[in-house]
Amino acid sequence: MYVCAEMKIEFAPLHVPLRRRLQTAAVVQWVFSFLALAQVCLAAFVLLCLSDWWIVGVLYAGWLYLDRDTPLCGGRRSQWVRSWSVWTYFRDYFPITLIKTVDLDPCHNYLFGFHPHGVLVAGGFGSFCTQASGFSQMFPGLTPYLLMLPFWFRVPFFRDYIMCGGLVSSEKASASYLLSRPGGGHAAVVAVGGAPESLDARPGALTLQLLQRKGFIKLALKHGAWLVPVFSFGENELFDQMENPAGSTLRRLQDRLQRTMGVALPLFHARGVFQYSFGLLPYRKPIYTVVGRPIPVVQNSCPSKEDIDTLHTLYMEGLMQLFEENKKHYGIPEDKQLKFI
């Protein structure tokens, strides 16, 4: 590798194996999809409506209206898209490893609590939205669905693309639809910390927004869906973030934006395509997404506050146990512990 002393830029080697270049290209398209593809799709739709092909835009708008409830009803996944070779290169870039601790009976529906959120939920996407992780082989009979902010399912063309991967709306009606399916076999994956937790995602961070997050517990109780804690070791190691301590001007602006639009804006950075000093690509750090033991849940269509608090405590204990049992295997010092806020 080469270093420019004046600017302190560390360049990538000139001779890099083709396999690694393809891995980088796969991550470039993934980051682009998260950060810019929605805007490009929206612009393309507007231009289509203003062009000589405006009738196509009108027909698609009609389709959007007729199809508006699909993100709330399990989406429209495509095994072809989920099996693209690009996702294998994406997985190997970090790499991402999905780890099973116990078998999960496909006769039940499950609610997976994914932690931590990280900046872009790379471990969640790689593990549950592609076939590259081997989820179907590890958990036969289970179909995973990663829940995403409803806002993105209103963007023309983009919504259809993300649904192909198994992404669905994070609205309560969407989760309820999945968890109430007769016969079991559905796993709704929720990044419990949500957008606010992404603002604290940086290397070494082990703080989870969980103490007041009880909506997913209530949903599990109402539908009798078994809870499964999932911890993604390495998720917070992928990006650095501008300092934004609580009370700072930047953090107040970020919190206001999150409350107004429901979308967080972490000012993250890591490496580039041809150099390792700055850019928006994640670092090549391994991610180990560990699926924990299920917590049996008895259906209660009208749970009391005490019922919710009791199950919430059991869930936190299960998540803490999962973390403590596995941290030594994935680079976390023995003296480090999770902190719930």
Strand and helix map with partners:
Elements: E1 2-4, E2 9-11, H1 18-50, H2 54-66, H3 79-82, H4 85-93, E3 96-100, E4 110-115, H5 122-128, H6 135-138, E5 143-148, H7 158-164, E6 167-169, H8 172-179, E7 186-191, H9 194-198, E8 207-208, H10 215-223, E9 226-233, E10 240-241, H11 249-261, E11 268-269, E12 287-291, H12 305-326, E13 339-340
Parallel strand pairs: 3-12, 4-7, 4-9, 5-6, 5-7, 8-13
Antiparallel strand pairs: 1-2, 9-12, 10-11
Helix pairs in contact: 1-2, 1-4
Describe the structure.
The protein is built from twelve helices and 13 strands. It has helices at 18-50, 54-66, 79-82, 85-93, 122-128, 135-138, 158-164, 172-179, 194-198, 215-223, 249-261, 305-326, and strands at residues 2-4, 9-11, 96-100, 110-115, 143-148, 167-169, 186-191, 207-208, 226-233, 240-241, 268-269, 287-291, 339-340. It starts with a strand and ends with a strand. The model has no long low-confidence stretch (mean pLDDT 95).
